[in-house]
Design goal:
By secondary structure, this protein is an all-alpha fold. Helix content is 71%, strand content 0%.
Length: 187
């Protein structure tokens, strides 16, 4: 279903289209964006935890958990293999090797088939980015730029379809808005 949906949107699958940009520097930049996911929650969590008002910190944790749980429920109801598996025959060029590409490849080996839609990485990162926009605006431009790289990098690495990214964005935004509304009502 995901492949049919994307075929209506794109003439060429985005993971295949991105092959034309496989240069070492470009590839490593996208790998950095993809790996930055692991810094989002600890970084913004630390910034928010240091404040006297702990509501934003606990809200960030709640929004992140809500986003992850929603993603995992969807995985169980709608298992979707990523493009590295379903479009393998179309990926004619390997992703350029590099230090960050090796780390991404290592993390992907631990992945499972059937957890592509929606992207939990994107959903979780969106929660951190939106909490930065609302409560730590100083860091928001950096996180939003890294989020954009992460979105493209997840497709470039053949881990996600473009629709997985859109789904992750929607889940992350919805989870964050639900929690932020709750925080605002209690204040």
């Amino acid at each position: 279903r995901v492949l049919a949906f994307e075929a209506r949107l794109f003439d060429v699958p985005p993971t295949v289209w991105l092959q034309q940009f496989q240069r070492q520097t470009f590839s490593e930049m996208l790998q950095f964006g993809y790996l930055s996911y692991f810094l989002f929650l600890p970084f913004i969590g630390f910034v928010l935890y240091r404040r006297a008002d702990k509501d934003p910190f606990f809200g960030l944790m709640a929004a992140t958990m809500l986003a992850y749980v929603a993603c995992y429920v969807i995985y169980l109801a709608f298992p979707t293999e990523g493009p590295a598996h379903t479009l393998r025959h179309l990926h004619t060029q390997p992703i350029p090797e590099g230090p960050l590409a090796s780390v991404v490849l290592f993390t992907q080996r631990a992945g499972t088939h059937g957890n592509a839609f929606p992207s939990a990485h994107i959903a979780g990162a969106v929660a951190s980015a939106l909490f930065a926009v609302k409560y730590a605006i100083r860091y928001a431009p950096l996180l939003l730029a890294l989020l954009a790289l992460m979105c493209v990098g997840a497709v470039y690495d053949r881990y996600h379809y473009a629709s997985d990214i859109a789904g992750g964005l929607m889940v992350g935004i919805a989870a964050t808005l639900i929690v932020m509304r709750k925080i605002e009502r209690t204040c």
